[in-house]
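Fold this sequence, please.
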Amino acid sequence: MASKLRGIICFIVIFFSVAVSGPAAANRTGVVLLHGTDGNPSNMGTIASALKENGFVVVAPEMPYSGYRKFDKAWEECIPEIDNAVDLLKRQGAETIFVGGHSRGASAAIYYGTQRAVPGVLAIAPGGNTGQIEGVMRDEVERARKLVAEGKGDKIGLFDYYNQGIRRTSRTTARVYISYHDPEGAGVIPKNAAALKPGTALLWIVGTKDPMYERGPSFAFDKAPPNPHNKYVVVEAGHLQTAFDTDAIRQIVDWLKGF
């Protein structure tokens, strides 16, 4: 209960401050920034500050997979939560709204682009791809599926997962757990990149020290619908560092200004 309360407080303080501080966007462009697994809105602070300095309106909501919330809602339920962030931007005066994120936040942004019409998606060091399930993760997915089949899918339990090679445990339901880790589910990055709504541009940024770098543009980026604004960017950074990398942030600002 205490961790839930801390999460709510974190969400309110950071979400509100990021949304309303900084100069008003001259071009009325807003950006939703989504943090990664076990993260929180402050992880997007460096990018958010740079965007605000360049006249963009920014919100960074706390997502269901944050370090506080620990998968308290299913993957598909991320969509209405992002909708809430978009609505807040509109109330702040934004007329054109982009959605982006880091790691699993990038995956969530791409998924959002399959469900809602947005001009562009920013995929910063994409991660959390459910299409890659190995070892203990496969065992946990099968255990969760069995619980669902037995009618125990909504009972709270402990489930292991990996975040950048580190084994962690979440307290959630089997049904929710599967939604994030099903290798054929709604979180498969290549499938979602291919399913982006027509007219949605994709900015993909990956660091040379990120495991995702070895997969190259053919993994998912090349599967996105053609768009003159599609851009694949490589920077000298690791997975976590990409969210703070000066070159990556410059590329993001320039890409958004290109619209």
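Confidence is low (pLDDT under 50) at residues 1-26. The longest helix spans residues 2-20.
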